[in-house]
What we know:
Order of helices and strands of chain A: HHEHHHEHEHEHEHEHEEEEHHEEHEEEH
Strand content of chain A: 5-15%
CATH topology of the largest domain in chain B: Aspartate Aminotransferase, domain 2
Radius of gyration of chain B: 25 Å
Low-confidence stretches of chain A: none
Number of helices of chain B: 14
Number of domains of chain B: 3
Oligomer: heterodimer
Largest interface: A-B, 206 and 196 residues
Low-confidence stretches of chain B: none
Number of strands of chain A: 15
CATH architecture of the largest domain in chain B: 3-Layer(aba) Sandwich
Distance between the termini of chain B: 32 Å
Largest sheet of chain B: 7 strands, mixed
Structural class of chain A: alpha/beta
Radius of gyration of chain A: 25 Å
Strand order of the largest sheet of chain B: 1-7-6-5-4-2-3
Structural class of chain B: alpha/beta
CATH topology of the largest domain in chain A: Aspartate Aminotransferase, domain 2
Mean pLDDT of chain A: 96
Largest sheet of chain A: 7 strands, mixed
CATH architecture of the largest domain in chain A: 3-Layer(aba) Sandwich
Distance between the termini of chain A: 64 Å
Order of helices and strands of chain B: HHHHEHEHEHEHEHEEEEHEEHEEHHH
CATH class of the largest domain in chain B: Alpha Beta
Strand order of the largest sheet of chain A: 2-8-7-6-5-3-4
CATH superfamily of the largest domain in chain B: Type I PLP-dependent aspartate aminotransferase-like (Major domain)
CATH class of the largest domain in chain A: Alpha Beta
CATH superfamily of the largest domain in chain A: Type I PLP-dependent aspartate aminotransferase-like (Major domain)
Amino acid sequence: xxxxxxxxxxxxxxxxxxxxxxxxxxxxxxxxxxxxxxxxxxxxxxxxxxxxxxxxxxxxxxxxxxxxxxxxxxxxxxxxxxxxxxxxxxxxxxxxxxxxxxxxxxxxxxxxxxxxxxxxxxxxxxxxxxxxxxxxxxxxxxxxxxxxxxxxxxxxxxxxxxxxxxxxxxxxxxxxxxxxxxxxxxxxxxxxxxxxxxxxxxxxxxxxxxxxxxxxxxxxxxxxxxxxxxxxxxxxxxxxxxxxxxxxxxxxxxxxxxxxxxxxxxxxxxxxxxxxxxxxxxxxxxxxxxxxxxxxxxxxxxxxxxxxxxxxxxxxxxxxxxxxxxxxxxxxxxxxxxxxxxxxxxxxxxxxxxxxxxxxxxxxxxxxxxxxxxxxxxxxxxxxxxxxxxxxxxxxxxxxxxxxxxxxxxxxxxxxxxxxxxxxxxxxxxxxxxxxxxxxxxxxxxx
Amino acid sequence: xxxxxxxxxxxxxxxxxxxxxxxxxxxxxxxxxxxxxxxxxxxxxxxxxxxxxxxxxxxxxxxxxxxxxxxxxxxxxxxxxxxxxxxxxxxxxxxxxxxxxxxxxxxxxxxxxxxxxxxxxxxxxxxxxxxxxxxxxxxxxxxxxxxxxxxxxxxxxxxxxxxxxxxxxxxxxxxxxxxxxxxxxxxxxxxxxxxxxxxxxxxxxxxxxxxxxxxxxxxxxxxxxxxxxxxxxxxxxxxxxxxxxxxxxxxxxxxxxxxxxxxxxxxxxxxxxxxxxxxxxxxxxxxxxxxxxxxxxxxxxxxxxxxxxxxxxxxxxxxxxxxxxxxxxxxxxxxxxxxxxxxxxxxxxxxxxxxxxxxxxxxxxxxxxxxxxxxxxxxxxxxxxxxxxxxxxxxxxxxxxxxxxxxxxxxxxxxxxxxxxxxxxxxxxxxxxxxxxxxxxxxxxxxxxxxxxxxxxxxxxxxxxxxxxxxxxxxxxxxxxxxxxx
Lengths: 447, 486
């Protein structure tokens, strides 16, 4: 017997008899003989829960992570996660439900989406949000498609300081739609109006700005870039780290047309890269160009407030190849986790998390510059992530830190050979002074 | 129990907190001291402030207004709503997995990479493919990737003319939408009445401008495409590729394999066949498997065995690139891995057999009260063409809504598009005979009600937390966020 299969051999007999069949095999007679797999699948026999636990503990034991102090970032951050989140997302009424196609018995999920949309629009300063996308990288690509759809142009401009994986994903998505990607070199790590001016034209559909950018720097010409973009009738897509919006100006404040980002740091664990979620919010006039699900408020026939999936004529199950996107399943449960996170922190809490992360990052940065031979990669305002470099190969620096149980940072070599000795260090509110002092001590020892 | 109609924003009180972080232990420098003033927002974003009790009760009350698989029967056709084992959830929460960062060195995540490699091999064995990528985050994401692979393959052969993808009119809506995402053109061909491919229509559509064919098998009517070998031959001879939409894999595990049927590319929905939860609309996982000749085009990175260990390799000059940020939904496909271990080779096959038994049992039990779209044994799901009009008249939508009063989630309705008044039922193997009987009785009772008291059915549902909602009004005047009353 298998615990997840309810029917017994006796049930099987009774059921077959009731509908006039002799064996289950009869249901498969239409599969041509030569296509039948006439052997067992080459897999192990079934394991019990107890055996699986042993196996998985052993497999997990081959990883290192939970015992290490984490200074890795690049869009994925090790933050305090409130206990309430796991308790809410573990309610099986949420996690075992399907997409809310039957609104009368899905008000829980639908109201969660409606509240999520409100939270995201408040955070980003935009008018409307969808119910979530796959991740931050594909959200940038979907936003690019919106810009193409809106402007009927084919060219997307991005600076070279966005997350390298975002750039890779964007490249793939645009390539297959025969759209053009123009990568603009940045000046000392930040995106300047002058650099954009050289590339932008009446053929531009959209311009992407990431703030803070991949190097952790706070972009300082966003207002000028937005203005120039709009002057060329293109859309401005702003990719943001949601936590930083606790204190940084929002995409709405800057006049962006679309705000996107990865929601991992809103209460989702590291999970080796996923599941996270992408968020996408926009101005009101772009609502019908948005991809994915949107929940809307309405009334039931007794006049009670309720929620439904709305504006569905944008979507694949209605419009098929003319849909705004092919997205169907999104990342609803991760968006729920993010909602609970934003509510748990509240207005004050999110500003505190952002402020502490920045303060701690600056403490570490100042200590490193003061006490070690490491130099900043760029000497410009940053938020909570910064690059440092020395004449020692980054891999060696990481190794020395790891010996002390520290994950030291991302090797910036992934952005080009000019960064071969550079490390990108992220500091969240979860890091302590003690951990940072030890980090500095290791670097001092490398002198 | 009291009804709950409160939004979280309506509970907010600026002096309440649900969670606090530790006090800062470094000098508290003001943000203005290191950031340009113009970079800062005037006021923090308007997020509600509630106590922890308020928070928990709010979400618990909302969850009570939701119907999940653990609540009851969920026979949504094409969605494979089977039970989500709890051991999967526990294993996915082991800190040894959850607390690994995607940018850690390969040497520190050997367990993760080994799991990915093992799962790749298991899924290849189940589907008869040569290599899998776990990067797609959902089924439609997998479809998009599969089509990109086709395009890359033809382009690499110098064949830039192949832009058309043939899709039967019985296909899932994501199929044509994914074709558009990959920059290809859809050619829809009419299916035969039983949903099978019309070989003449296919032959006519084939040509040197066709990149390939997308097919679901068993098809969306729950029937095995008997002519699959002829179809594969026809497509391959014309230089095209065959894409398998794996939404219906629950019918065939250990019985037959898309790789052996002639498919070149396969996607699986781990959140369907392999019991990872739907989460109210994700996260899912949609791995894509390919035959040998398509391996060079798979996205980067992929796991490679190197000596005694594993590494992530980006060495694939012909790769289509990346389609998501990191390595796909690791925490989700980990659950599928655990499921495959729990079932083993014999359990997976038994799951498919019982899924098919359950579907046939329900179908034949309902054949007098409803019209069968096709009167022939089905696989894991079947389609009813509405109520038996000799007994009564009642639109499918009302039958579905009345089922809510009987405590069941309705089947998929009005899909596939080729069946009038369609009700698509997929019971799955995890349901007991008793549950199936209860559903059958409810369906029959609704037919009786349609005859004797049609008003009761037409005004359903009557017992749900909210009643029929005004969807037209919602779309006409979209209210998509909460705003405080003036």
